[in-house]
Every structure is written in C-alpha cells, then in structure tokens.
Specification:
The protein has 21 helices and 15 strands. It is an alpha/beta fold. A three-stranded antiparallel β-sheet has the order 5-6-9. A two-stranded antiparallel ribbon has the order 1-2. Strands 3-4 form a two-stranded parallel sheet. The longest helix has 17 residues. 35% of the residues are buried. The protein binds one RNA strand of 75 nucleotides through helix 5, strand 8, helix 7, strand 15 and helix 12.
RNA sequence: GGCCCGUUCGUCUAGGGGUUAGGACGCAUCCCUUUCACGGAUGAAACACGGGUUCGAUUCCCGUACGGGCUACCA
C-alpha cells in the first residue's frame, strides 16, 4: 500500500548512500549527508604524464582516508588516454610515491581487482561500445572538421564579437558533422576511413544542477557549455567520457578530485543523464587547490625551484637531465607529509593538529574541508617533520644516523652513535641534520669563528685552557665520562676564580671551532680523550692571544 | 573576454547575529642554559570594500574589488 502511494507521488528513490532531507517551504530544499556507515568506493585517477604533483598526493590521501574510514575501497586508475604525453616512468613513480606514504590502493593496474583493467588505454573497446550508445540515442554525434576549420570557426566568432567561442548548439550547424551532413554522407566518410571525432550533443538550454559535498549546490546553464569531444580521432576517449564510463562501471560512489575539475563537472552530470545512470551517479567533492606560497596561482615546479623546497614526493630527473627535488630525499618523513597535507584544506574543528593516519581515519570528514585554496607553507611542514623525527625511538634514529654517516664515509659504532643521537635529538629537523650539524664530532676544526675568538680568547681564558688541559691529561681512560669531565671543568674554573661564561666560549671554539652547540662535557666524552687533548692543544698553538 | 569557485592574523585555520575574534606555524621579547637548540612565558599580528536586513553584522543578502580555476581531438 505504501509502495503504490509512493510511486503515485513520484518520489525519486533515495540514493543508497545518502539521506535526503526535504525541507518544504524553502528553496534550498536538499541537505545531503554522507552516511559514514556505508562503505565508499573512491578512486584516485592520475595521468602518467610525469612526476606526481604533491597536490595529487593530497587528493589520493583524502580518498584513501575515506575508504579506510568507511571500510570501503580505494582504487587507482591510470588515465593514460593522451598518447602523446605518456612518460614511461610515471606509473612507477605513482606507485612508489603512494607506497612511501603508506596509502596504497585496494585495486589498481598492478594488483588487479574485480573491474580490471585499471589502465584506460586497455579499456578502449569499452568506451567505443558506450559511446555508440550515446550516438544511437542522439546524445552524441560524428564531426569531421579539420583543425583549420575549427580555427576558422574561432576566428569567425571572434570577429563577430561573440562571448563564448564554442562548438555548440549555436555553431554546430555551420560545421561538418552529423547535423549538417546526410546520413549517407556520414556513412561514406566513415567507411572511407576519414578521421572523425565524436562530440557530445550539448543541450541548447538546460539548467544543470548538481550538489558538491564541499561547495553545496552548483548551477550552470548548458548554453555556456560546448559540444566536448568524447572520442578523439586516434580512437581514444577523452577524459570526460572515460572518467564517467569507468566510474560507473567501477561503481564509484564518490568522486573526490581537485577544483580544476569543477568547470567540467556539469558535462559529466549530463553524461550520466545521457547514459541513464542518474540514480547511481557518484557524489562529487571538489577539493580546494594547493596554491603557491608567495603571491598567487597554482603550486608549480617553478615555485619549488624559486623557494628551494620540493613539491614532488620523490626525486626525479627531468628530460633535460636536471635533478628535481623530492620530499623523501630532502629528509621529510612520510608521517610529517601526511599530517601536513591533511591539514591543508581540512581541519578537525578543534585545536588538535597532530594526526597520524589512524587519527585521520577516526576524525576526517568531507564536511570539514574548506572551500578556499591553501597556500603551501613549507615552514609548517618542517615543524611537523621535527615533531615526528623527535618522536622516533632512539634505535631508529641511531640507524638513521649510521646510514647517513656511511654516505659520508664516516663510521661510528653503535654506542657512539647512540650518544650522538642523544646529544643532537632536540636540535634536528631532518635526519641529515644529525651528521651535518655534528660534523665537529668527527673532524677537528680547520678554522675558528673569528667573532668568538675576538670576544673570548683572553689571557685568562688561555690560562684556564692550559690548566684544564693539564687536568684532562690526568683523567684515566676509564673515567673519561661527561660527568667526570664536567666536574673537573667546574673545579678548574673555581680554582682560578673565574666566571664560567668568561671561559666556556674559548673552550668551545677550541673544540668545535664555533660559538654555539651542544653540551661541552658530552662533546668531550664522545670525542674521547686523545682528540680532546689534541684539539685544545692545537687551539692554544694556533690562536693568537688578544691584546 | 565568457563561465564557475573563492576571500578571518604573513601562513594554515577555529568561530559565528551581541566574543577581550581562539589555536598552530613563523616572528619578537623574556626565562632556563657555558652558548645554540629544546622547553616555558609573554607579545605584535586578521574578519577585502560598499550597500542592505536587523536594536545590533565579521557572521545573513546583494553588489564591487581582488584572487583562483576552466575555457584543447590535455588530464
């Protein structure tokens, strides 16, 4: 009884994954909520035209989190329909990047899955089949215009001062296509193997509305849209066709992608309608863009060069042979990248800012994604890196240090490495800081900071160093430890009636060459007796006493 | 040019008709320390503009400005 009443009222079935709440009396009548209990199927669909951009990584991350959060699936689909822009290593770069960050897909070209293949170039036949459906229903048509003819159209429209220079309902009647050619002529051309494209028959006037999970309702008039090419003359589909067909076949529930796709979303909605797939059309969420740190515009490779920080996850080599920096090689930790990226455009609504993947799975939501683009602030990324680096267990840091030292051809045994880690832990942002900032532990200073010497190398400091040196010589090897040395240090200072601040900079500069650094007693312990004595002796010899 | 999207400290952002407009990064000062770093404390720093609606608008509406995206047989 209920059923018949409902069908009589022609109430549309509710899409399975959403609640639709009707609010009578108001114009904004639909509020759509994501039902988080329902598993989503989402996809990341990069095109393998080069190194994966960090913005793409964030898109992948948001998709991944949503899938994990709802117990759904995260698919990776390679959108390689532009054969002229293929880059051989790009696919591997994508896998490596996702793997590095720990956000691997559930279905992909490499793992396979129930909807394989996951590479669009391998799905050509499928698109041909579906586009024929559109041709048959009148939603798409053949066009034979050459590049010159297309340019001529554009020039004519410019001359006529028409606002939108488009191949559309207003202009298609002047071109060479199924509308202006007879059926027989079209067939002859097709049979003759003449190059053609298949275009979408964009309705002359129709209001296209769709709901974006981040931006709300968006309305565009079809008269401002054009007859987009669906099938290219090389037999490959364009993004627009392939993306809609694949998302349908792969049962994608949410399309989460960058804002640069917003203008073509109405076309996609119209395609779903033309195919008769409205009821299962995915929900859209268009993410705010990652912007350049200074001024304006989308984050680009040029910014990376200009600011000296990476915008790619992994290092790569450009066709010109130039090494382009990657976050991984620059010393950024995956945890830090995830945290940093997640907070670019999303926030939890409270003061928490440390999020690992598990925390994100627990708190992430599309509703809390911002609309405005986010500038890329590398300082914040560095802060996250420092945070996560310091949080690592000492054993891991020791391993990191030893690996780093090896690249410098320096070796340090485990106990020495552990001491260095303890000494440097609070002063590092990147793993390489451990050895770059602690070079003085391995190499005696070759020069001394002139400013520090000018200020600290006084006769009394020299006298102190001489007597401290004598004291050090008496310390038995077994007692060469930071606390013993510190005790001796203070004792010597006291005996000479000196102030500690008057004398320490001289000791430091003789040991490290610099005026600032970690605790000196600890440095002497790590250095060991002989090098310590040698360095002080050398400084006393080399540095001339002031006045 | 056309279409679409956006606008709270320098940056990431919270908030929302009546708030001392909150936090974080960065910056500055102070404390700690042999110095630097870490840590702690404090501080400077924002509602783009103009109209409405309202007792009251940073918050709602409309414009303007500014910024961004798209405008390919690229994705």
């Amino acid at each position: 009884m209920y059923t018949s009443q409902i069908s009589f009222l022609r109430i549309k079935p509710i899409p399975p994954s959403f609640f639709v709440i009707l609010q009578p009396q108001t114009n904004a009548s639909f509020l759509i909520y994501l039902d988080m209990n329902k598993p989503v199927r989402v996809r990341f669909a990069p095109s393998p035209t080069g190194a994966l951009h960090i913005g793409g990584v964030r898109t992948a991350l948001f998709n991944y989190i949503l899938a994990r959060q709802t117990g759904g699936q995260f698919l990776l689909r390679i959108e390689d329909t532009d054969q002229t822009r293929q880059v051989a290593w790009a696919e591997q770069y994508i896998v490596d990047s996702l793997q590095w960050l720990g956000i691997m897909p559930d279905e992909s070209p490499w793992q396979g899955g129930p909807h394989a293949p996951y590479r669009q170039s391998e799905r050509k036949a499928i698109y041909h089949q579906y586009v024929q459906q559109l041709v048959a229903s009148g939603h798409a048509y053949y066009a034979f215009d050459t590049e010159e003819e297309l340019n001529a159209l554009r020039e004519r429209l410019v001359a006529a001062k028409v606002d939108n220079l488009q191949y559309n309902a207003a202009t298609r009647g002047t071109m060479k296509n199924s509308f202006t050619l007879t059926e027989a002529e079209v067939k002859t051309r097709l049979d003759a193997g003449e190059p053609y494209v298949i275009r979408f028959n964009m309705p002359r006037k129709e209001e296209v509305r769709f709901h974006d999970l981040i931006r709300g309702w968006i309305m565009v008039h079809s008269s401002t849209l054009d007859d987009k090419v669906l099938m290219k003359s090389d037999g490959m589909p364009t993004y627009h066709l392939a993306n809609v067909v694949d998302d349908y076949l792969m049962q994608i529930t949410h399309v989460i992608r960058g804002e640069e796709w917003l203008p073509s979303a109405p076309l996609h909605v119209l395609l779903y309608k033309a195919f008769g797939w409205e009821q299962v059309m995915p929900q859209f969420a268009h993410l705010p863009l990652l912007l350049r740190p200074d001024g304006n515009g989308k984050l680009s490779k040029r910014d990376a060069d200009a600011h000296g920080f990476p915008i790619f996850p992994l290092q790569w080599t450009s066709p010109e042979g130039e090494q382009v920096a990657g976050f991984r090689e620059a010393g950024y930790l995956p945890e830090a990248m995830i945290n940093f990226l997640a907070l670019l455009g999303w926030n939890p609504g409270n003061d928490q800012e440390i999020f690992d993947l598990d925390a994100l799975k627990a708190t992430f939501s599309l509703e809390r994604i911002n609309k405005a683009g986010a500038k890329f602030d590398i300082k914040k990324a560095q802060w996250f890196n420092q945070h996560y680096l310091r949080q690592k267990p000492d054993e891991q840091l020791v391993a990191l240090l030893q690996a780093g030292l090896q690249t410098q051809n320096i070796s340090a045994d485990a106990s020495k490495a552990a001491k260095i880690v303890a000494l440097m832990k609070d002063r590092v942002t990147f793993p390489h800081d451990f050895w770059r900032e602690a070079g003085f532990l391995f190499e005696a200073p070759t020069q001394y900071d002139a400013q520090v010497i000018a200020k600290s190398w006084t006769p009394e400091a020299v006298a102190f160093l001489e007597s401290f040196l004598n004291g050090l010589k008496q310390v038995p090897a077994a007692e060469w430890q930071a606390d013993t040395l510190k005790h001796l240090l203070h004792e010597t200072i006291e005996k000479q009636g000196l102030k500690i601040g008057k004398v320490m900079p001289a000791l430091r500069v003789s040991l490290t060459g610099a005026g600032a650094g970690p605790d000196l007693a600890a440095i002497m312990e790590i250095l060991g007796s002989e090098p310590t004595l040698a360095r002080i002796g050398q400084a006393l010899e080399k540095i001339a006493v002031k006045n």
